[in-house]
Write a structure and sequence with these properties.
It contains 9 helices and no strands. 73% of the residues lie in helices and 0% in strands. The radius of gyration is 15 Å and the shape is globular.
Length: 148
C-alpha cells in the first residue's frame, strides 16, 4: 500500500483528515501510530474552526520533520522548511481553490457545524479528495527536494 492509499484507509477507518495524513508518514519518522493520532487530534476541520485544512496542517508537520533542524541557528534548514511549507499551501490551494477548510467546504456546499452537515460531508468523500491531494503535494515536494 502506498502512502496515499494508507492515508485514505486511515481516514475511512474513522480518523480525521489530519490524523490520516500524518499517520501515513509516522513510521518514516519513527513516530508511533498512537502518538501520531494524539498529536494531530485537534487539527481536523481546520483546527475545528474552518482554518487551514487538517490534511495540509499535517503536511506542514511532515515537512518540518523532513527539513527542519533541532539547531535553532540553522538558517538554511529554517528557510527550507518555510519554503516547502509555502509550496505545500500553494499547491494545495491551486488544486482546491483554497487551503482553508471553511472555504473548501463552502465551495462544495458543505458545512460541519451540524450533525447532519458532518454526515453529509462524510458521505460526499470530499475529505478523501483533500487527503489524496495533500499527500500528492507532500510527495511531490519530498521527491523534488530529495534530489538536492
Amino acid at each position: 500500500m502506498n502512502t496515499r492509499e494508507h492515508a485514505v484507509t486511515v481516514l475511512m477507518g474513522g480518523a480525521s483528515c489530519a490524523q490520516a495524513v500524518f499517520e501515513a508518514y509516522c513510521e518514516r519518522y519513527g513516530i508511533s501510530q498512537q502518538d501520531a493520532r494524539k498529536m494531530t487530534a485537534g487539527f481536523g476541520g481546520g483546527f475545528a474552526s474552518g482554518l487551514t485544512c487538517g490534511a495540509v496542517s499535517a503536511g506542514c508537520l511532515i515537512l518540518g520533520l523532513e527539513f527542519a533542524s533541532v539547531d535553532l541557528s540553522d538558517a538554511y534548514a529554517r528557510d527550507r522548511t518555510y519554503s516547502s511549507t509555502q509550496e505545500l499551501l500553494a499547491r494545495f490551494a491551486e488544486r482546491n481553490g483554497s487551503h482553508q477548510c471553511a472555504e473548501i467546504l463552502a465551495r462544495n456546499a458543505m458545512e460541519i457545524q451540524s450533525p447532519e452537515g458532518k454526515q453529509r460531508l462524510r458521505e460526499s468523500r470530499l475529505c478523501v479528495k483533500m487527503v489524496e491531494d495533500a499527500v500528492d503535494c507532500i510527495e511531490g515536494i519530498l521527491a523534488e527536494n530529495s534530489a538536492e
